[in-house]
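input
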Amino acid sequence: MQDEYRTVAREGVHEIEISRSRFICALAPAATEEEAMAFLARIRKEHPTARHHCWAYILGADGSVQKASDDGEPGGTAGVPMLQMLVRREMRYVVAVVTRYFGGVKLGAGGLIRAYGGVVGEALDALGSVTRRRFRLATVTVDHQRAGKLENELRATGRAVREVTYGSGVSIEIGLPDAEVADFRAWLADATAGTAVLELGGEAYGEA
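output
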């Protein structure tokens, strides 16, 4: 598995105008192809009179799923340059939809390629990116008396506290880089006088 990947920081829209044609790029994080297609459907509904809704997406932390569509523009002038921009910026788990309102002036193949790729690049700049890193999920169970202090210490030392559950004891779910598990186990024993229990779970990605 990839140790980390970059994706768009948030959903958003960026627009440019070239020769009276409007190019509106909508970007969003997408975990699956279904999410990407649902986002496309939503954008189509928001702009029902637009001539083209070209799209591209990259899924998988290693970028293993890559798809694009020109949606009626000349072959290779829209979806491909959009996808190439996402690849160049090393984006993952992201979908881009560029809606075009034709302004009456033909841009030619080169003009379209620059416009579609360019608006995606500008949208990425405007919205920013986040790095998500692979973590080992771990659950720390501790008594109620120590739980509040331990949670504060975990947060103060930059641990990714994901969830806190109260029962007979308190379970705190955290994310740990694999390389830090042994050191964390020793720190936890010291911080709780050996009273906390650490259980390792599966893997997930979280913000670095």
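quick obs: The chain has a mean pLDDT of 94.
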